[in-house]
Amino acid sequence: MLHDIALALEEGTTTAILGRSGSGKSTLLRTVNRMIEPKSGEVLVEGKSVSSCDVIALRRGMGYVIQETGLFPHFTVERNAGLVLEAEGRPREERAKRSRALLTAVGLDPDDFARRFPHQLSGGQRQRVGLARALAAEPAILLMDEPFGALDPLTRAEMQDMLRGLLVGLKKTVLLVTHDLDEALYLGDRIVLLDEGRVIADLTPAEFMQSQQAEVEAYRRAFHRGESNGAKEVGR
Amino acid sequence: MSTGFLAQYGGEIGTLTLEHVWLTAWAMLIAAAIAIPVGIWLTRSPRWAKPVIAIANILQTIPSLAMFGFLLPLPWLGERAARIAIAALTAYALLPIVRNTYAGIRGIDPAILEVARALGLTGRQRLLKVELPLAASFIFAGLRTATVTCVGIATIAAAVGAGGLGELIFRGVASVDNRLVLAGAIPAALLALAADSALGLLERWFKVPAP
After folding, report:
1. Distance of alpha carbon A138 from alpha carbon A135, whole angstroms
2. pLDDT digit string, tens, across residues B130-183
């Protein structure tokens, strides 16, 4: 599904992977934490091939956020947020403290939310907890697979603001899969465009907006289509 | 039933009820100890699911009286009537427990299992923290079906001399005394209802609300 991918991610930056459904975005992301093992080629993290790492330790060292369904329905918000620490066998007080600090960081009041269950949260709140959970073990790398894809545009914008704010302070290396150009432009230091499993563009947001490359132009055109329409209405 | 009847048989009804509970409880414990691990294993090797569930299904179709008869000549098992009874009841209890354990775990949202893997939970942690708790309600539903079935079938155990409330029923049938039949049947029915509601409570308790 993926062919001839050669990408190097710079530490502390956000790389947005853009492309249509089935272009291999998620597959690419999932080779990093070995949810998928590539048939050939290798993925290096900090110079070390992931296939030579202990898979459990590797995964615990990477935050992972997916679309809406990722929270454990039978755990409270606090336990969800601290799950990686729980898996590592850290003491309960430490987990509780860290969970509460993280909930605060993602904009949820722990006194109100810690004891709730996922079904008692809105979509945006669930995603905040998902993000808190991904950050719990202080991973250097954050893998996000369309994290805000299921949210309404306003909530999505709030989440993007929050994430951007958090990332400034934390200096994580982020791989963000999205099909939302806006999100890629807003959060990415770099935008990688995938098509049928190949990298067809690898640009900064500014370059992406100016590129003459046909595929990039097509992607740009597919967004904000309503704007020109709206402008016509105003002009009338 | 007159008070005279209860005075005469009350003690025996009590003893036989306890015996009945004892037979069923042992059978359920053994069946759960076999069937839950088997159900878990089937989720790891789904190609075995069909044949294994088919075998459990066939066990279930053997008429209970015949089942007791088959077990009678076996060494060790055949030596004690209670052993035969427990073995037969265990065989009947397997199917609902295996099937529900398997279906319960297979029914978990794949995204949840995927996240559990991606967060770095070990296989054991995934089983104990995610799969079993999320399938628990299903597993208890299987235990409930199995228990109710076994309480009923345990009345046949008296045919091989294993005791239990069937004792009174068989005696009542032989002596054409409906009071004796009812003295066995009513407590057996009440036991089944009690087990049904107790396990039903557990089943609801473990039900996880969908997000």
Report:
1. 5
2. 999 999 999 999 999 999 999 999 999 898 888 899 999 999 999 999 999 999
Chain A residues with beta carbon closer than 8 angstroms to that of B117:
35, 59
Residue A126: which of B120, B210, B211 has the nearest Cβ?
A: B211
The number of domains in chain B is 1
Tell me which DSSP letter residue A7 carries: -
> What would the mean pLDDT of A149-159 be, rounded to a whole number?
88
Helices (H), A61-204: 77-81, 83-87, 92-105, 110-113, 123-135, 153-170, 181-187
Q: Give the DSSP per-residue string, B115-170.
A: HHHHTT--HHHIIIIIIHHHHHHHHHHHHHHHHHHHHHHGGGGGGGT--STHHHHH
Neighbours of A103 (CB within 10 A): 23
Q: Are strands A141-145 and A173-177 parallel, antiparallel or unpaired?
A: parallel
Interchain contact, A60 vs B211, CB within 8 Å: no
Of A56, A68, A73, which is closest to B209 when you measure between CB atoms? A73
Contact across the interface for B208 and A64, Cβ inside 8 Å = no
Asked if residue A56 lies in contact with residue B122, where contact means CB atoms within 8 angstroms, the answer is: yes
Q: Which residues in chain B are closer than 8 Å to A84, comparing Cβ atoms?
A: 119-120
Residue B211 placed within a domain: no
Residues of A with Cβ-Cβ distance to B119 under 8 angstroms = 59-60, 64, 83-84, 87, 133
HSE-CB at B127 with a 13 A cutoff on CA atoms is: 12
How many alpha carbons lie under 13 Å from residue A30 in its C-beta half-sphere?
17
Rounded to two decimals, the ipTM of the complex is: 0.85
**Residue B120 forms part of a structural domain:** yes
Query: By CA distance, what is A122's nearest residue in B?
Result: B211
Nearest to B138 by CA among B162, B170, B166, B106: B106
Q: Which residues contact B82 (CB under 8 A, 6 or more apart)?
A: B23, B162, B163
Tens digit of pLDDT for each residue in A69-82? 689 999 999 999 99
A84–B contact, CB cutoff 8 A? yes
Nearest chain A alpha carbon to B137: A74
Hey, are the CB atoms on B211 and A64 less than 8 Å from each other? no
Domain A8-61+140-236: give its CATH code.
3.40.50.300
- Cβ contacts below 8 Å, chain A against chain B, sum to 67
CB A200 within 8 A of CB A215: yes
Q: Is A88 helix (H, G, I), strand (E, B) or coil?
A: coil
Q: Is residue B62 part of a domain?
A: yes
Instruction: Please give the Cα distance from B22 to B33 (Å, whole number).
Output: 17
